[in-house]
Amino acid sequence: MHPNIQNLYTIANKPSRKIIGLMSGTSLDGLDIALCTITGAGEHTSVVIDHFTTVAYTAAFKEKVLSIFSKQNISLAQLCVLHPWIATEHAKMVMDSLSSWNVKATEIDLIASHGQTIFHAPKSLHPNDEFGTATLQIGDGDHIATGTGIITISDFRQKHIAAGGEGAPLVIYGDYLLCSHATENRVLLNIGGIANFTYLPAGGKLNEVFSTDTGPGNTLMDAYTRKHFEGVSYDKDALIAKKGTIHSELLGVLKKDSFFSLPFPKTIGPELFNLEYLNEAQLKMGIVLSDQDIMATLNRFTAETIAAAIQNILPSNISFKIYVSGGGSGGGMHNPLLIEHLNSLLPNASIASSIEIGIHPDAKEAILFALLANEAVAGAPLLAGGHSTKVPTTMGKISFPN
Predict the structure, then answer these.
(1) Looking at residue 12, which CATH number applies to its domain?
(2) Per-residue pLDDT for 16 more than 90?
(3) Residue 118 φ then ψ, to 5°
(4) pLDDT tens digits, residue range 230-284?
(5) Are 374 and 345 found together in one domain?
């Protein structure tokens, strides 16, 4: 047996595994690094977060990624060279973090890397019937494995698509394994660049769980802030939006896109919800608004589309609790105006941070990919709720360090 296969076999048979989850979202804040001790697998999984950090990206790093991010026309040479370069940079960030935690790389069993999404193209976003759903994340797993000396599992979304899903949202698996409750109806709401939620009915099984994207999370607000407020990357504490007034006509135009009438579950990305989308909506009105009014309207746009999706899926006669995560320092529970809107729009719900159920709100997605890596090695194929995959699925490609 090849030594790498023997090593993987040994890891799979351990009662618990040390797994580093890596997440780099569309907001490009930085790399979330969660060192987890994961015991068991499947419905018998438990997770302890040993360490967590977000390594902020430099302006130069962001500029390189933005040169190819969510664009129809890019330099293929730039895409080609960034694929290994991002992985090498992520490997350095992992090694630096381990050093700061006084943890040796030899103590780590696996790295689970989401990679950096460059383009997400669900079938609804392109008209060519010859092609189906597609997505692309770069940051090569082989380079991470070689740069750290740790077996790396990456490129999780491709198998989800191959099995009939849309490559997102994948949070359904971690939400089900860690957050299900016998008596409480729960909504796990993740507000990153794009917002998504998982509905966990009280006592439900995996095939009863439902997960979907809802539309924009922070992506439009962040993009507008970066463009119109020099040196500012997000609307901290919603201070800009709070100074503005919601413009009902602009809000109505923003909500008219055909995406919102598509059946659930569905996925989307900044490929649709970007500044061009906003500009087209403004042109239709022929009205010039203040930056503050636009930010107030974008904040409400995110809240109303989240609330509408939740109300569409959940029975109207039940009470439920929403646990919010995601979005780094500018999203999720960190945006008080957005939470205020959600509270008013969802009177049947109470809203709290996911920290209340033991999930660090900024670490949640990094933990998710650590869980998926654990299932790939020590678990069993999972069938996503909401019929998003047609067959039980194991996600992730394995890269050995030598």
Answers:
(1) 3.30.420.40
(2) yes
(3) -105, -40
(4) 888 889 999 999 999 999 999 999 999 999 999 988 889 888 999 999 999 999 8
(5) no
Write out 45-85 in H/E/C secondary structure: CEEEEEEEEEEECCHHHHHHHHCCCCCCCCCHHHHHHHHHH
> Could you write out the DSSP letters of every residue in 162-195?
HTTS-S---HHHHHHHHH--SS--EEEEEESSEE
Strand 134-138 to 349-353 pairing = unpaired
Give the pLDDT of residue 212: 92
Residues 307, 158 within the same domain: no
Residue 56's DSSP bridge partners are 30
Residue 127 sits in which domain range? Answer: 3-169+363-399
Q: Which helix (H) or strand (E) holds 197?
A: strand 194-200
- Residues in Cβ contact with 219 at an 8 Å cutoff, skipping those fewer than 6 apart: 26, 27, 193, 194, 270, 273, 274
Residue 81 neighbours by CB under 8 Å, 6+ apart: none
Contact 219, 27 (CB under 8 A): yes
| pLDDT bracket for residue 331 (50, 70, 90) | low
- What tokens does 352 get? 């709290």
Q: How many domains does the chain have?
A: 2
Length of the chain: 402
Helices within 318-393 (DSSP H only)? 336-345, 364-378
